[in-house]
Write a structure and sequence with these properties.
The protein is an alpha/beta fold and 659 residues long. Among the domains are: 80-182, no CATH class; 310-391 and 465-569, Rossmann fold; 406-462, no CATH class; 582-658. Helix content is 44%, strand content 17%. It is built from 21 helices and 18 strands. The protein has helices at residues 41-48, 82-87, 93-109, 116-135, 140-150, 167-180, 197-209, 221-227, 246-281, 288-300, 367-375, 409-414, 425-431, 448-460, 478-490, 502-505, 527-534, 539-544, 561-565, 582-622, 629-658, and strands at 3-12, 15-25, 30-34, 56-60, 67-70, 185-189, 213-217, 230-235, 238-242, 329-338, 341-351, 356-361, 381-386, 392-395, 466-470, 494-498, 511-516, 519-524. A six-stranded mixed beta sheet has the order 5-6-7-3-8-9, with helices on both faces. The protein has a six-stranded mixed beta sheet with strand order 14-15-16-12-17-18, sandwiched between helices. Helix 15 (478-490) links the parallel strand 15 (466-470) and strand 16. Helix 4 (116-135) runs parallel beside helix 21 (629-658) and helix 20 (582-622) packs antiparallel against helix 21 (629-658).
Length: 659
């Protein structure tokens, strides 16, 4: 089922956002929509989703095509539990059954077996049968559980009311519902903004192995490189379509831009020569025919455009850092609890002057909470010392949302600038791509990336020596992220970065602090060295890690260096186990046998279904198969997939019990 975008044009305030764009989304495409902030990526997703009308053109998709759309921001008001809210993803099953009945009744009366319309009905019926096989299966609960755990929820979260969760976690619930619905096309607008590294890796694997067509907007380079096989760039109202992932697209794009620039320069020279000729001979009667010919020639020229924003001009540079003490941050047994919930405890570490470190871990494990402790915004236990002459520059996750939407870009900076800097506000705004009329825009009309850039400018106005950046790359386009990364590298002060963006952290930080299980652990080395040590690359390892081990109360960062840097160091160290009694041993053995039996039963069911699928495929190959054989094949294939899911869960349970 292909989706066709035909001659799409969109205009805002007489300005063209899209100009006669056409392309096709094929069933197995995984497309990255890229372009600078404000190019229209989110608008394109809304139009495909049917939430916004174009000025002209249309989006044509076959009947019964299902679309799952995740926007950047959502407003939810549900009051059910997490598990009940996610179960609502299957509420469309009755509609699918009704449509399948319609198709079956229609096929009984039709005789145009060779026609395209008949084949399209067969394909639709197969697709519906395929989806119903899993959604009507008793195993859909296992799929819900796997999806929620993959997105970072604990089993203890399943029965909690959704109203207890923050906006980022509510977005994960919406994402879970969309993924479980198995739509024909997934439209994802910045899906990684509210996910941690582990959940991003799980989502990557899901999209690669289970999704159908995907169109996504993301500024996480590692994520789109791993997931996509096609890149569509939106630039100057047009699109450039590349059948490659993002990294290969960058190479091809540079070649295109070089050719475009050469063509532009050649055209400009020709225009200048023509204008010189006209000006030189305008008043000579003997040349009037040639002059008029040249004037007409100029009028007919279709001017070559190059991207009006040269992002190489964005030279972000933090002011020189005033010298601070040798140790800007010293934490000694720092802890923070909310009521009975201990977010973390016994955090002991020292950050030296000039170090650049990352805070990583699942959402809710305390990264932003510890930042607030360092900032002195919330009370905590233990001792936390901020070094001599430390001046902190803080960029919070919600910094962009704190801007006053009713004032202009210029006034936003003018109100915080002091001294000589006020005479250079226009220059600074221009360097951050807010030149000309853009500086007079009201903040409320800016895109998410533009607001983030504006908030970053405010951070640059005051010299600091300790930068604390909490998710600074959310909503920034990739070019701006690269420039921000280089500016942080060049900064001669101390930096703490809270981020889930692996590409951004790679080569930037030399130390990683992992938050999890109520502890803060130090890992020397970069982000990919940390991930290698944690062995988070495989889905199975990720799902096993969702069961939190008993936390060791010994502060990890205060242990000998050999223990800190060992690649085999476990995520947490359990206290010495006492010897089990005979009765406890018998009970444990019973649980192990029961879990092993479930694994064996799942393996037997997989073998049976594999044989069933093979038999059906043999019957199809033999020719003249029964009329319902394609339905049987789709059902058996989906049952096999369900059985694999059950085997995966049973194997995880056996491993947990065995440990």
């Amino acid at each position: 089922m292909s989706i066709s975008i035909n001659s799409l044009s969109v205009e805002f305030s007489a300005k063209s956002l899209f100009d006669n764009i056409s392309y096709i989304i094929n069933p197995k495409d995984r497309i990255a929509l890229v372009g600078k902030n404000g190019a229209g990526k989110s608008t394109m997703l809304k139009i495909i989703a049917g939430l916004q009308k174009p000025t002209s053109g249309n989006v044509a998709m076959p009947r019964d095509t299902t679309v799952g759309y995740l926007p950047q921001h959502i407003n939810v008001s549900d009051t059910s539990s997490v598990i009940d809210e996610v179960r609502s993803a299957f509420s469309h099953v009755d509609k699918m059954r009704a449509r399948l009945d319609e198709i079956n009744n229609e096929l009984l009366t039709r005789t145009d077996y060779e026609s395209d319309a008949y084949q399209e009905l067969i394909e639709t019926m197969t697709s519906l049968t395929d989806r119903l096989a899993i959604e009507e299966s008793e195993n859909f609960e296992a799929e819900i559980e796997k999806t929620l755990i993959g997105l970072g929820f604990l089993r203890s979260d399943f029965q909690r009311p959704t109203s207890e969760f923050s906006g980022g976690w509510r977005m994960r619930i919406e994402l879970a519902k969309i993924l479980l619905a198995r739509p024909d096309v997934l439209l994802l607008d910045e899906p990684t903004n509210h996910l941690d590294i582990e959940s991003i890796q799980w989502l990557e694997n899901f999209l690669i192995t289970k999704a159908k067509a995907v169109v996504l907007v993301s500024h996480d380079r590692a994520f789109i490189d791993n997931v996509t096989n096609r890149t569509i760039e939106i630039s100057l109202g047009k699109i450039y379509d590349y059948s490659v992932n993002y990294s290969k697209y960058l190479v091809l794009r540079q070649e295109r831009l070089d050719q475009q620039m050469r063509a532009y320069q050649n055209q400009q020279k020709m225009i200048q020569d023509t204008e010189d000729f006209i000006e030189r001979f305008r008043y000579k009667a003997t040349k009037s025919v040639q002059v008029q010919s040249r004037i007409k020639q100029l009028a007919k020229i279709e001017r070559i455009e190059v991207d009006e924003v040269d992002t190489s001009r964005l030279n972000l540079k933090f002011p020189p850092a005033p010298r601070s003490g040798d140790y800007p941050v010293i934490a000694d047994n720092v802890g923070k609890a909310y009521g009975n919930h201990q977010v973390f405890d016994h955090a002991t570490f020292t950050i030296k002057r000039g170090e650049k470190v990352a805070f990583v871990g699942k959402n809710g494990e305390g990264k932003s909470t510890l930042v607030k402790c360092i900032m002195g915004e919330i009370p905590f236990t233990g001792n936390l010392k901020i070094g001599h002459n430390v001046k902190i520059g803080y960029f919070a996750q919600n910094q962009a949302t704190l801007l006053d939407g009713e004032i202009t870009v210029f006034d936003t900076i003018d109100r915080v600038a002091v001294g000589d800097i006020r005479t250079r506000i226009r220059d600074i705004l221009g360097a951050f791509m807010f030149g000309g009329e853009a500086s007079d825009k009201k903040v409320k009309v800016l895109s998410g990336g533009e607001k983030t850039r504006l908030a970053m400018i405010r951070l640059l106005l005051e010299p600091v020596n300790l930068l604390i950046l909490d998710e600074p790359t959310n909503h920034l386009d990739m070019k701006t992220k690269d420039i921000l990364k280089q500016a942080i590298k060049d900064f001669n002060g101390t930096v703490i970065v809270v981020s889930h963006d692996r590409e951004f952290l790679d080569g930037l930080v030399e130390k990683v602090y992992e938050f999890g299980g109520g502890q803060v652990r130090e890992c020397l080395g970069g982000i990919y060295e940390f991930l290698e040590k944690k062995k988070l690359a495989s889905l199975a390892e990720l799902e096993r890690n969702t069961i939190r081990p008993v936390a060791d109360k010994t502060p990890a960062a205060s242990k000998p260096k050999e223990a800190d840097t060992s690649s085999d160091a476990p995520a947490s160290t359990a206290p010495a186990q006492r010897k089990l009694s005979y009765a406890e041993q018998r009970e444990h053995e019973k649980l192990v046998r029961k879990a092993r039996k479930k694994v064996e039963e799942a393996e037997a069911e997989i073998s049976r279904l594999e044989q069933e699928v093979a038999d059906i495929e043999s019957a199809i190959s033999a020719g003249n198969p029964p009329a319902d054989i394609y339905d049987r094949h789709a059902t058996a294939t989906k049952q096999l997939e369900n059985a694999m899911s059950l085997w995966e869960l049973a194997s995880m349970e056996l491993e947990e019990i065995s440990r």
